[in-house]
Structure formats: C-alpha cells, structure tokens
Amino acid sequence: MAFVASGKNFLGRSSMRHPLLHAIQGLRYKRKLEVILTTSIDKLGKAGETVRVAPGYFRNYLMPKMLALPNIDKFRYLVDEQRKIYPPKEDEEVKVVSKTEGSEIKEYETAATRLCSTRLTIRKFIIEGKGEELREPVTKEEIISEVARQLQVRIEPENLHLPSPMSNLGEYKVPLRLPNAIPKPTGMEWILNVKIRKR
To answer: Are strands 166-168 and 170-175 parallel, antiparallel or unpaired?
Structure first.
C-alpha cells in the first residue's frame, strides 16, 4: 500500500505525467436508459418511440409526469395495444395567415373602444393629515403598465397625453392620441377614464 501511495505522490509532484493516467482521470461511464415515450416531447421524440435518456432525467422528470415508461416487455405490449385501439392523430400543418391592414385596424379599433368604455382603477397610499394627496404621484409609465395588466391592451407612451403626474385621489380623464387611421365614433374623443383610490 505504501508503494501505491508513494507512486501517487510521485506522479502528482512530477512535471511529467503518464498520458494514460491523465486521460482516465475524467472518464465516467455514461449510462443511458431506454424508455418508451407516452407523449411527444420536443427535441426527444414522438409518442410511442423508444429513446435513450439519462437515468436522472427519467426518474425525476419523465416518470413522475407519466411522459415515459421503462422499455420492458410488459409496457411495450401495453403501448402497442393502446396504439391499436387509439391510433395516433396525424399532425396537421398549421397555416400562418398574414394579417391584412383591415384586420389590424379592426383590432386597433376594438382595443380603443375597450380603453374608452372601461375605467382604470389605481390604488395608491395617501399622506396622512394632508387630505387626498398621494405619497407618490401616478406617472405615465404606471398608467401604461396598469392598462396592460387590467385591460390587456398594450399602448405606447406617446399614445397618452399626460402633461404632469396625477398627485391627488379622484377621477381623471386622460386624452388618448391614437393614429388617424382608427375612426372616432361621432361626437366622441378617445379618452381613458382613470380612478385613483386610497389603498
């Protein structure tokens, strides 16, 4: 045993190393398991195929979610019988339909009517003893983020006309600057109704 230990020390200290000993140090045996996929998984395979995966990936991800089964005769037979009863559906090609200018204008128009017909509610803290004055004023960026969160409409900062931040509780009418391509309803302006309430 002392000879082996001294041999290790000798190899560790010397500037020359034997090429075989150096190559074996980082070598690991990579074992793969063969599994049967129950559902199609991107970058792995389609349902019913037999693929090779790492044991940890199968044990921790595929097996608990029932995405794959071990490749043994019993499971292979069950999968084959199931495929006879329920044949796999053919993947249909999805056709991408390009949006026309008319459909885009309709989308913009529905978004604009949604903005005008609903009220945006923002809750803010007030300064105690100063009435309805807010701790932090409501800015244009905050209104844009709340519109995206509450109304699911994405607007740009230049679409809102807010000369100064809102610093008091109450109801406000914020004018919208929308493109001229969107037709305005007769006798109406594009206005966003904002209500600031106490939190």
So the answer is: unpaired
Burial bucket for residue 143 (CB in 10 Å: 0-12, 13-18, 19+) = buried
Helices of type H across the chain? 2-13, 19-25, 55-57, 73-85, 101-117, 140-146
Whose tokens are 């979610």? That residue is: 65
Here the tokens at position 156 are 């740009």
Contact in structure between 198 and 123 (CB atoms under 8 Å)? yes
pTM reported for the whole predicted model: 0.48
Angular region, 158: left φ>0, alpha ψ -120 to 50, beta rest: alpha
Q: How far is CA 153 from CA 7, 68, 156, 173, 199, in A?
A: 72, 40, 10, 18, 24
Q: What is the pLDDT of residues 99-147, one digit of tens each?
A: 676 777 888 888 888 888 889 889 888 888 888 888 899 999 999 899 8
